[in-house]
Amino acid sequence: MTPGTVAVIGGGIIGALVARRLLDRHPDAGVLLLDQDVVGGGASRRSAGLHFPRGASPRVRRMSAYSQDFYERLRTERPATPIYPVAMSVLSRAAPTELATVYARPVRRESTPAVLTACGAEVRVGRDISVWDVAGAQYADVHRLVQTLVTEVRPRGTVREGVRVTALDPGGRGAYGVGLSLSTGERLTVDRVVLAPGPWLSAPAWAALVAPLGVRVKKVVALHVDHRATGTDRALVFHDEDAFLLPLAYRGHWLFSYTSPDWDVDPDRVAAGLGAEDVERARACLGRYAPALAERCTSGRVFCDAYSPTGQPLVCPLDPERRVVFAGAANGSGYRLAPAIAAEAVQSFDPSGNGSSR
Ligand SMILES: Cc1cc2nc3c(=O)[nH]c(=O)nc-3n(C[C@H](O)[C@H](O)[C@H](O)COP(=O)(O)OP(=O)(O)OC[C@H]3O[C@@H](n4cnc5c(N)ncnc54)[C@H](O)[C@@H]3O)c2cc1C
Fold first, then answer.
1. Which letter, b or e, does each residue of 317-356 get, where b requires 16 or more Cβ atoms within 10 Å of its Cβ?
2. Which residues line ligand 1 (CB under 6 A)?
3. Residue 60, SS3 per DSSP
């Protein structure tokens, strides 16, 4: 069954993959991808873009495996895709049974080294910490990947950038359509909408529709470490701190991502730059493992992401007729889970279940 005309609102990694999948599954559908900015300019532009095969719940583990296969296929089909495999080790005090559940096939190192080397410096490994090697990790230049994906959408669908959706009215324009008002003054009616707004949850057009989901916006910060990264360097994940050190070879430096505690930030304000507190928190976290590196964190990237109350991404209808589907709130994992989120969103138009990520 064709879903008719579908507006995908938000041209980040999730919206781009939704548009692509819609066109692949339903070549007869009319797909309109709308973004208030140039596509890939939101959270996707600032993303560290790390994929690691892990998930705290069975659904997220399934989504992670699905997305990993998807990205691997994309790389095989188009070798120029900006996705780069990376070796990875996980450091943790957690019980082996916990790690073996969360990560896909982790291999514990038989003897735990007292120090590891990353980013040209020593990383201390406490006696209570075990080291696990995990295969299947990769990272992407997510901004460039979105441009590539949207370039493929253009000949088959319509892409409109710099066009903000100012009103969204499910069922408001007759019994069968969703009314949209645009910043250009246009009004249109489409059959369905996939809403993939990243952290722009409080946009007047959908704040009331989205509020019952209980999604909140949290600051996400990653510091840049000025040390040359190469394609053979290994990423280190500090599992207990939800932090990682990643060699961004395509940019020629390392990145340290840690968990910021700042909730309910505004995506239109938060990108103003690193604050002293951001740098101090990152240094305190990294300093526990690699004091020499902490002092070298002097720049970075600041933005935010949408977090769901369950810790799992949300793909769900926002209206009783299921014409508007929300896709997002991936809790700082929107790159690595985006293919599975897109698959679930498109599948929600196809109750037969064909093409599900499940
Ligand atoms: C610093 C940082 C590091 C990260 N690191 C990782 C990582 O290592 N691995 C990982 O998996 N994830 C990571 N993430 C999270 C990941 O980047 C996000 O989850 C993902 O990019 C979200 O994609 P999205 O498409 O939902 O949102 P976005 O990329 O924000 O896209 C939403 C789009 O909606 C558009 N929009 C909003 N309002 C309107 C409107 N009214 N009308 C039209 N368009 C509108 C915006 O312009 C935007 O382009 C990181 C995030 C940050 C900030």
1. ebeeeebbbbbbbbbbbbbbbbbbbbbbbbbbbeeeeeee
2. 9-15, 34-37, 41-44, 46-50, 164-165, 196-200, 203, 205, 220, 222, 257, 301, 303, 305, 328, 330, 332-336
3. helix
Residue whose token pair is 């990205």: 71
* Structural element, H or E, at residue 222: strand 216-225
CA–CA distance, 304 with 172 (Å, rounded to integer): 32
The pLDDT tens digits of the residues spanning 171-199 come to: 865 667 999 999 999 999 999 999 999 99
Q: State the pLDDT at residue 351.
A: 61
- Ligand 1 atom with the shortest distance to the CA of 44: 21
C-alpha pair distances (Å), 30 with each of 115, 147, 157, 178, 311? 56, 20, 6, 14, 33
Could you give the 3-state DSSP secondary structure of residue 154? coil
The tens digit of pLDDT for each residue in 107-142 reads 999 888 888 989 989 999 999 999 999 999 999 999
How much distance in Å is there from the Cα of 304 to the middle of ligand 1? 8
CATH of domain 5-46+143-213+311-347: 3.50.50.60
87-136+216-307 sits in which CATH class?
alpha beta
Sequence ranges of the domains in the chain: 5-46+143-213+311-347, 87-136+216-307
pTM for this entry: 0.96
